[in-house]
TrEMBL record:
Signal peptide: none annotated. Residues 189-238 form the Peptidoglycan binding-like domain. InterPro entries: Cro/C1-type_HTH, Lysozyme-like_dom_sf, Peptidoglycan-bd-like, PGBD-like_sf, PGBDSf. Residues 95-132 are annotated as: Disordered. This is Peptidoglycan hydrolase-like protein with peptidoglycan-binding domain.
Amino acid sequence: MDDAVRDPVPQVATAGEYVALLREARRRSGLTYREIARRASAAGHWLPPSTLATMLGRTTLPRERTVVALLAACGTPAVDVDRWLETRRDIEARLSEQGRREGGPAQVPAGPSSTVPATIRPSVGSVPPRPEAPWPARRWLRLALLAVFGVLTVGATGALPPPAAPTVDSASTGGCPTVLRQGMYDPCVLSLQEHLVADGLTVPVDGWFGPDTTSRVMVFQAFGGLPVSGTADARLFDELAGDRKVPVSWPQERIRKHLRQMFPEDPAGAVEVARCLSGLDPYRVEVVEDGSRRWGLFQFSDVEVSRFGVDRRTVLDPAWNIGTAREIWSRTGDFGHWNCAT
């Protein structure tokens, strides 16, 4: 156990000192904000990196729920978390009393009561391994609850709300935007990422719809026979609720072995070019500035895919992708077809 969770909670008198202790606990954990967010999520909490940064950047008393989420992610034992919360409540009580004496507002968190009853407080012991994300029968209800929880968290922490979302059809989406797209950041995106992972697509589960999530959505759409838009709508969620669509990806060692076999003249060069282009990820999809896409290990463009007369599922097959790269190499005798700084 590291020092951040082994040391007793010192006695502090002000909210600023309390936050300073939390910053020190975070620093001594050795975890980044994004790692803390993921570990907190695995332990059943919602603590986006932006919320964490806001909390640790202020000198006001943070919400109990965010304190619990941070300490849980750092692996703090439950008994020590209770002591952290007792210290926080003592400070809150002093601030409230001071506010009454001075006739002004107390320096306490805004919004509803921040107390987390012991009977409903989530477990805050060591973070368990994240199980494969299930897809419940009432999937839209789960998304709605996540969305409500995200709104409450934003209100609790004082963080700015996300950009305005598209019109919501609550009957069909259970409170989530009708379309999720790149740039969004909310619990509905988190749920989408969980279920992409459950279907075998590795993606950060952080609630941020970034380029990685866009890429994985397009891969799922390609294998599921859906329009490859890179956005998530009700039809995509319905497909995620069904049987697995994405074949198990080749591990990198198998990819390296196949590359060396297909390019015996320059095995190291073949591995390096594929690594440079795609990170040896057979399901890598890149969106370029003009909106076109590049697919798979050797990043074949939309134009090339059309010229080859194959669909996206085929071009994402590592055996086909490597074999086609070999055919191109055979005509030129080098890897000049690909522009990658190796």
